[in-house]
């Protein structure tokens, strides 16, 4: 079963991802490690929050188990050299986007809006692909110490 495509969720996911990237660039946070880590960590936390707000404890447990890696990987990435950090972050973002695509097929989170996986998946993939390009054009002189 394929979820119906929600063009509005995809559009706003794209706009949100681009806004995050642009705001980090113009604020001078582009080369800092922590901002993108915090963005990635927020994705599984939203799913957990949706489950808790709906009082759906089985979904909350599923979200904690499924989302744990998406919280752990960015934290591990903080301790890596810049190139390893970029690759781990890009991989985690794109992988979470894939998770979003299949989310409603693996289990139901009654608190998550139906449009959320498509919105979140779009944000994930756009930011992940952006980080792949950042890794590809990595220059040591652009490195900023971790926050």
What brief labels describe this structure?
mainly alpha; disordered C terminus
Could you walk me through the main structural features you see in this protein, from its secondary elements to its overall organization?
About 75% of the residues lie in helices and about 0% in strands. By secondary structure, the protein is mainly alpha-helical. Mean pLDDT is about 85; it is low at about 145.
Question: How far apart are the termini?
Answer: 43 Å
Principal-axes geometry comes out as globular
Query: Which secondary-structure class do the elements indicate?
Result: mainly alpha
Q: What are the low-pLDDT stretches, counting only 5+ consecutive residues below 50?
A: 143-147
Mean pLDDT: 86
Question: How many helices does DSSP assign?
Answer: 5
Q: Tell me the fraction of residues in β-strands, as a range.
A: under 5%
Order of helices and strands: HHHHH
The biggest beta sheet is recorded as: none
Helical content, roughly?
Answer: over 70%
- Please provide the count of β strands: 0
Radius of gyration: 16 Å
Q: What does the secondary structure layout of this molecule look like, with pairings?
A:
Layout: H1 7-26, H2 34-53, H3 57-78, H4 82-106, H5 116-136
What would you say about this model in short?
This protein is mostly helical.
